[in-house]
Amino acid sequence: MSDDYENLRVTDEDGVRRVVIDSTSKMNALNRTMIDELTDLFAGLETDRPRCLVITGSDGLFCAGGDVLDIGNANAATPSEGFRKGAAVLHDAMLHLHQAEVPVVTGVNGPAVGAGFSLALVGDYTVASEGAYLQYGYPRIGLPGDGGSTYYLPRTVTRREAKRLVLLNEKVGAEEAAERGLVTEAVPEDAFEDRLDEVVGEIAEGPTVALGRTMRLLDESSANDLPTQLAAETQAMADAASTDDHIEGITAFAEKRDPEFTGE
């Protein structure tokens, strides 16, 4: 993982890796350089795993979509080639994040549109500021969606609701997003940072390996039949049983005290 990103501010503290989107493009838009940086960042999670990853935006902005002029035209003979290359690299990043099995919290503190919508949905737990909103966004520029949006959306809300959000391209405020299941909770703007830190801190104190594997099991459950899912659960239980956190959990249970997990 590089410490010198142009579009991301990354800090590590108390096992929490905090990623602040601070794009060189307007409205914190996702540009080609940021896609490369996200790929590098997420790939690094597989070997240098924090206890929790939190993604939020700078200056009251989350990510208002992709910088389509940059992604569609940079070093490409046609827009089709440009978007194919951009989407392929972004999808490598999203696969790295999925495979890392790190609990992810997204703090939506402003517009989350298009690629920003996709990044918001990737959170296992999503806190939204009351001034924020989510919008699928892609139909406005005649595109179907990327960044895992069509994977995560129908797993976050019903298939019928997912199609409504796409077809009508609705702008959904934070409170309504919480009511409709798009985000976990909506909080007042002046309480956003404190609540985000509270959620992240609690997750970071948990059994990281077990939590990360459970998030992956839940994401993949709708694509599996029962025998496949049970086999995945069996392997996950066996893997987690060899962790220090499992030993600590059992010891604490026997000693009738709260466990002190280390994430290992």
TrEMBL record:
Matching Pfam families: ECH_1
GO MF annotation: an example: isomerase activity
Origin superkingdom: Archaea
Alphabetic keyword roster: Isomerase
Gene3D superfamilies: 2-enoyl-CoA Hydratase, Chain A, domain 1, Lyase 2-enoyl-coa Hydratase, Chain A, domain 2
Record-linked PANTHER family: EG:BACN32G11.4 PROTEIN, ENOYL-COA HYDRATASE
Official protein name in the record: Enoyl-CoA hydratase/isomerase family protein
Organism name: Haloglomus irregulare
